[in-house]
Design a protein that fits this description.
The complex is a heterotrimer of chains A (about 350), B (about 160) and C (about 500). Chain A has about 350 residues and is of the alpha/beta class. Chain A has helices at about 20-25, 30-35, 50-55, 75-85, 95-100, 110-120, 175-185, 250-255, 270-280, 290-295, 300-305; strands at about 10-15, 40, 60-70, 70-75, 85-95, 135-140, 145, 150-155, 165, 195, 320, 325. In chain A, helix 7 (about 175-185) links the parallel strand 9 (about 165) and strand 10 (about 195). Chain B is an alpha/beta fold. Chain B has 5 helices and 4 strands. Chain B has a 4-stranded parallel β-sheet, sandwiched between helices. Chain C has 15 helices and 16 strands. Chain C has helices at about 40-45, 55, 65-80, 85-115, 130-135, 140-160, 180-210, 210-220, 265, 305-310, 315-330, 340-360, 410-415, 415-430, 440-450; strands spanning about 1-10, 15-20, 30-35, 170, 170-175, 225-230, 245-250, 255-260, 265-270, 280, 300, 380-385, 390-395, 405-410, 470-475, 480-485. The longest helix of chain C is centred in the N-terminal third of the chain and has 32 residues, at about 85-115. Classes of the chains: A alpha/beta (about 350), B alpha/beta (about 160), C alpha+beta (about 500). Chains in contact: A-B, A-C. Chains A and C meet through helix 1, helix 3, helix 6 and helix 8 of A and strand 1, strand 3, helix 1, helix 6 and strand 9 of C.
Chain lengths: ~350, ~160, ~500
Amino acid sequence: MSENGKPKLALYWASSCGGCEISVLAVHEKILDVAEAFDIVFWPCVMDFKEKDVEAMADGEIDVCLFNGAIRNSENEHMAKLLRRKSKVMVAYGSCSHEGCMPGLANFFDREQMLNFIYVDSPSTDNPERVFPQVETEKPEGTLTLPEFYNTVKTLDQVVPVEYYLPGCPPEAQWTLAAVEAILSGELPPPGSVIGLDVTVCDECPRERSEKKITHFYRPYEIDPDPDICLLDQGLFCAGIATRAGCGALCPRVNMGCRGCYGPNEGVEDQGAKLIAGIASVIDARTPEDIDAILDTLPDPAGYFYRFSLAHSMLHRTALAEGDRTAQAIEEVPRLDPKLGT
Amino acid sequence: MSDLQEFQPVIVGFLCNWCSYRAADLAGTSRMGYPATLRDIRIMCTGRLDPAFVLKALRGGADGVLIMGCHPGQCHYEEGNYKALRRVALLKRTLAQLGVEPERVQLGWASAAEGVVFAEKVAEMTEQIRALGPLRWGGNLADKANGNGTLAGVAAMDEEVVS
Amino acid sequence: MQRITIDPITRLEGHGKIEIFLNEEGNVANTYFQVPELRGFEVFCLGRPAEEMPRLTNRICGVCPEAHHMAATKALDDLFHVEAPPAAHKIREMFYMAFYCTDHTTHFYALGGPDFVVGPNAPAAERNVLGVVAAAGLEAGLAVIDCRKRNHEVIKRLGGRAIHPVTGLPGGWAVALSEEDRAFSEEVAQKNVDFALFSLQLFDDIVLKNSAYVDLIVSEGYTQPMYYMGLVDENNHVNFYDGKVRVVDPNGDEYCKYAPHEYTEHIAEHVEPHSYLKYPYLKNVGWKGFECGIDSGMYCATPLSRLNAADAMATPKAQEAYEKMYETLGGKPVHHTLACHWARLVELLYSAERMLELCQDPEITDPHVRNIPTETPTEGIGIVEAPRGTLTHHYVTDENGVLIGVNLIVGTTNNFAPITLSIMKAADAVIKNGVVNDGVLNMVEMAFRSYDPCLSCATHSLPGQMPLEIIVRNADGGLVERLTQYVDE
């Protein structure tokens, strides 16, 4: 608590896009109520306090820290640990810190693959000497440092304990306010909770659903969907079946399938596994050949099923081959043994 | 090469109550010899198999997962094994993108009378996994950039390895 | 050697730091600007279906997702060899103009504006949006909040969501525009025009009528003759949504004009070991280090660049404002980086007028907004102007439309070398004989702020002063001097 009795609030962004910072501001006029109610002691995007100000605080001095962004490099990890020490309550704000979000897709690859493409192989890069960014660079005047780029993107709770999660990419304003109000009133759910609903996007979606029998998956550009019928019923992939509600089904309302940014529903650890189960269940085929033919119309299943949640999934990443530590996907698409038809 | 030195795969088996689990019992009571690599778990139907079970097994130290159920058309609950067929197909495609070889997750059918089929399947899969080598999923989070870099959580997962 | 570290720079996209080294005489030996972050979209988008890119690349930036969404959508049109119906183009552009209105407003009033509206030498406690309100009136402050809110509502109606829109598709747009939404957008556009005119008038009253500010704008420390880049239509008018990329040299003569497919013939990226961000430059002039001028490949892509690179604005009121700016500053091209704030307001007016034009076009409510691609995808490049600079998306796919190659050159990236040079010039200009004072802090901030580095989230920057600490150490690491502003001791 500050001397004025206001709880101390910190906001920090690790490897993120800034959308979560904007979403905090998307509460519009209510931001002034937030500023009134809290003493904001650290918010690098907006308020220019520095790391050493945080270091100077006592442990637990910050009442709540809203931490967004994934843990991509050593600076992100350092700040996560520092803020954890100095905060009573740590909130993983938004999909990046909750599940990895887009930065987490880098877990299909490894560090070397990324650096090689970006700094050498990209078509517009001119770097014949293969200069790579270095953690330390000697200049005539002194040593310059950069944070270390990790091999694997981690979520906040894979680095420090987290009390609450606010899902979404970004969280909708009403949930940010709900969290703020819960904090101020002291009526918080048990630690480890996700602040939000416990039903799926389907419950918020206005489209008409009937029994699903999918014989073909269509890519979004291939058809102009009926505006009133469930997108998945029409063969358009929609992750809403296994995604926590809270957004109001914004994407299906504009004819675009959900991609799962609020993460898995209550009680589910691995969103992708639920999507595999759900999508496979509604395929209208019984023989191995027919099943494979339908699945061939859905490319990149791992990218659809783990679009936001790869870093938080049970397997976290593509396997690193022993010895090399190289991420290697299996190129050939597995097909069912025809004998399984009998 | 002695058994002590050869890699002994750890295979987790999900066997359905009505067919394949009984096949496994039959293999046992008939004293059929087959590798002791399978750790079997009874589920009521392969339709009960949540792909998350497979992922948890692989993460927890399994080198492979075998799912066995009733033949198509003979499922005790009619549709369960068809669902399993579709789910395993999609799961394997997903796992391939994550670098898990298709042979590590296999689906088979064995009726209650087919103890031999069961035993042969386990033997065959054991050799396929032996050739692939151990999976050791926990090591994936070790960060090349900072040496051993294993997180506390990963170390805990390594301890869960079924031995 | 004395070393001054400014870390972190704040109100900048992500994280950045500046290291200044002083020689024995206490003058600047060298200045380094480092960007310590990298996420790797160009790699982790590989293997994804290309039509997901508008929704994947959104997440490069949560302040300007609309820019990436639009560049991606256009790249997809090209990739799938499909033309969108006219109504779809109009909806896309109108949506994009709404985005420009909110984005440029936010930057001017909360980030750039305070330096002028309140004054660079004013107490820093007043150099923020509240100070702008105090100087310009409470109505101005409310108008800023309303501008953001109403334009984000347009974005949500047309794009599905206020942050990270989803409706871009190859061959069109996922939803048509209803008459109700068109009427709403038209009202918004009209308010935007009024607000843009108000903002330009404000700039005139508070900045241009103050000779000290004008002197600052044209001062040598902020003058940097470079090549300038911007997208232009077939009449060489500024266009944010479509056209060719035109580059003019420091004398204002056209240096090149290229279509999206030709970008690699003109642009290359240089790598330095002390930063994760790369430095684009004009390939055929060459990378000459942190120098500007006709012999150096350093180019700039900002609102000022766009106005320099074009011949005129496409809408009447904006054209008037354009002419007035160049008249005042002595003709084209203008090399004064602080004039970027003025150029931004000219663009704000253009965006508002263009949005209104589109809202009043009856074709925009035509229900036909999708053409279904029929050809096999191969390779596609889409270029738009992001508020911070020219944005290029380049995709290569297999015949199933799954990505096998991605290259992105993002708005602020274009300006990484110019910003570095601006910081170096500012440091050189104010640090002499080992005297480091408060003036440095502001001069350095102003150097990079005019470029509107991607995250201009300072809308609600209360209190808005920039706590900054400069630590001067001698060669043994001992503390020589410590200067602070707004740092609690």
